Amino acid sequence: MPSSADEVDAALAGVVERIEAAVSDLAPEIIPIVLIDGRSGAGKSSVARRLRERWQGPVTVIGLDELYPGWDGLSAGATLAREFILTPLSEGRAAAWRRWDWAADAPGAEVVTPAGVPLILEGAGALTPRTARLAHVRVWLEAPEDSRRDRALTRDGDTYRPHWSRWAAQEEHHLRTHHPQSLATIVVDVP
Fold this sequence. Notes:
- The chain is of the alpha/beta class and 191 residues long.
- The protein is 46% helix and 20% strand.
- The strands form two sheets. The protein has a five-stranded parallel β-sheet with strand order 2-5-1-6-7. A two-stranded antiparallel sheet has the order 3-4.
- Helix 1 packs across helix 2 (44-54).
């Protein structure tokens, strides 16, 4: 049975509070990098949006949807994020990366993400052993398949519907290969 909107809202509010607490516990000189992972429809984008709205000061939010090179690109998008965003920012350098142009099905405009600004990176595949070493707060959102599918297809409708199964297979591969839940510093069940 799908979860109620109030239950989902409470879970998302709770995870935002936990992330805020974890960030506030970091040493003042640390520029936080927050990774939010979970399967499609788990609430990653919603958590990132809520967190940005409450963040005190500047923060950059990047969704892996901006990097995945098409519907078969979950793994490649995560690699691009690590190489072109997480590594330079964790080293105190600006990050230059290309946004994926979904309409053209090709790399699009270059984006430069400045160093010295906290980062929230969200998306399926974001949390791997290699990215975990580069982030200060690592979040895994778990949710039942029926609830996730309902939320994702309500959000993206017919654009996503034909790709649900192939994307889910890539998520399964990510879970078997990287065990992201075990790498998370915060794990939350979203109804």
